[in-house]
Automatic annotation (TrEMBL):
Transferase as UniProt keyword: yes
GO biological process assignments: methylation
CDD domains hit by this protein: AdoMet_MTases
Source organism (scientific name): Oxynema aestuarii AP17
PANTHER family per record: METHYLTRANSFERASE
GO molecular function annotation: S-adenosylmethionine-dependent methyltransferase activity
InterPro entries to which the protein is assigned, alphabetical: Methyltransf_11, SAM-dependent_MTases_sf
Pfam families for this protein: Methyltransf_11
Protein name per the record: Methyltransferase domain-containing protein
The keyword Transferase belongs to this UniProt entry's keyword annotation: yes
Stored SUPFAM superfamilies: S-adenosyl-L-methionine-dependent methyltransferases, Trm112p-like
Domain Methyltransferase type: 103-198
Top-level taxon: Bacteria
Length: 307
C-alpha cells in the first residue's frame, strides 16, 4: 500500500468540512479533500490542512513562526512527565480491552503522542493529533511516522470531524489560545462519543504580584513584537528554576532553546485566556459531562465523561 492509499484509508473517513460538516471527497493522488460547498482543502505531506490563511496577524502564522524558530529534535523529559501526569485519568478510565480512537486537540510537536505511544494498549488503538501549526505537525509526524498517529491541521474552534467519533478527546493548554474557548470546548464534546472522555488543562488566572508581573511582561511583548519577545524570554530563562512555574522546565532539565520555547508560548501570543476553576467546571456541567477527575494542585486539570 502506498502512502496516498494509507492516508486515504486511515483518516479521510473521519474528516468533514470544518465550516458546514459536509462529507469530503478524496481527490486521487493525495491532492486534497473537496467540500461541495467550500471547495478544496489541500493535503500537504499527508497532513490535511483546514486553515489556509498565512497572514502575519493570524494565529497559525504566529505558531508556525514560533515552532520554526524554537523546535528541537528532543522533547524535554520534564514536558513528557507533565504530559504523563495529565493523561493518567485517561489511562485509568478508558476501556483498554478494545481498540480506541483518541484526539489530541492542540498537539503541538507531539509530546502527548510520544507518551501515549509508549503504552502497551496503544498498539491496537488509533490516534489523531490536531494543531493549527503545520510546522509543529510536520515535526510530530517525522518523529512518529512509524506509529498509529495521524495528523490534521485545523482550528480547535471548528474541528473537521463528524459528531461522536472519538473515545476520548483532550486539549492540553491549547483552548486558552482560541478566539472562543467555550466554543472550542463544545467542539471537543461534539466529536466525542457518548460514554467517552473529555480532558482539559488550562492555566488559571494569576493574582497578586506575580499576576501583575506576568501581565506587564505580556504587555511588553505586544509592544516590542517578536524580536522583543525573544529578548524578554532570554532574560527570563535563567530564572526558571526559582520562578513559581507550573511546567517545572528549567536549565537543570532542559536546554536553553527548550526553555525559551516554553516561556515564549506563555508570553508572546496576543490571544491568551485565563479562566477560573469554577468557569471550567461549569463548562463540563453545561455540556452534560460528569467530572471523573480533577487535580487542584496543578493548573486547571479536569476530565469528564460524556453522558
Amino acid at each position: 500500500m502506498d502512502t496516498t492509499e494509507n492516508f486515504n484509508n486511515a483518516i479521510s473517513h473521519l474528516l468533514r468540512c470544518p465550516k458546514c460538516k459536509s462529507k469530503l471527497l478524496y481527490l486521487e493522488g493525495c491532492r486534497g479533500l473537496k467540500c461541495p460547498i467550500h471547495g478544496i482543502y489541500p493535503v500537504i505531506d499527508e497532513i490535511p490542512c483546514f486553515v489556509q490563511s498565512n497572514h502575519p496577524e493570524n494565529i497559525n502564522y504566529h505558531f508556525d513562526s514560533h515552532w520554526d524558530e524554537n523546535i528541537t529534535e528532543q522533547i524535554p523529559i520534564q514536558k513528557q512527565l507533565v504530559a504523563q501526569e495529565f493523561l493518567k485519568p485517561l489511562f485509568d478510565c478508558i476501556n483498554l480491552q478494545k481498540p480506541a480512537l483518541l484526539l489530541d486537540a492542540g498537539c503541538g510537536n507531539g509530546v502527548h503522542a510520544r507518551v501515549l505511544s509508549t503504552q502497551s494498549w496503544a498498539k491496537s488503538s488509533d490516534f489523531v493529533g490536531l494543531d493549527i501549526s503545520l510546522s509543529a505537525l510536520r515535526s510530530a509526524a517525522r518523529d512518529l511516522h512509524k506509529s498509529s498517529w495521524k495528523f490534521v491541521q485545523g482550528d480547535l474552534g471548528e474541528l473537521p470531524f463528524e459528531d461522536g467519533q472519538f473515545d476520548a478527546a483532550f486539549s492540553f493548554g491549547a483552548i486558552a489560545y482560541t478566539d472562543n474557548p467555550l466554543n472550542s470546548f463544545s467542539e471537543l464534546c461534539r466529536v466525542t462519543k457518548k460514554g467517552g472522555l473529555v480532558g482539559v488543562w488550562i492555566y488559571p488566572k494569576t493574582g497578586g504580584l506575580m499576576g501583575v508581573l506576568f501581565s506587564t511582561i505580556r504587555s511588553l511583548c505586544q509592544v516590542t513584537g517578536s524580536v522583543g519577545s525573544r529578548l524578554i524570554a532570554d532574560c527570563i530563562v535563567p530564572f526558571l528554576g526559582v520562578l513559581p512555574t507550573r511546567s517545572g522546565i528549567n536549565l537543570a532539565n532542559s536546554t536553553w532553546k527548550q526553555c525559551r520555547e516554553v516561556v515564549l508560548v506563555n508570553i508572546a501570543p496576543d490571544q491568551l485566556f485565563f479562566p477560573t476553576t469554577s468557569e471550567v467546571e461549569s463548562w463540563f456541567s453545561d455540556y452534560g459531562l460528569e467530572i471523573i477527575s480533577q487535580d487542584d494542585d496543578n493548573p486547571i486539570t479536569i476530565w469528564g465523561k460524556k453522558l
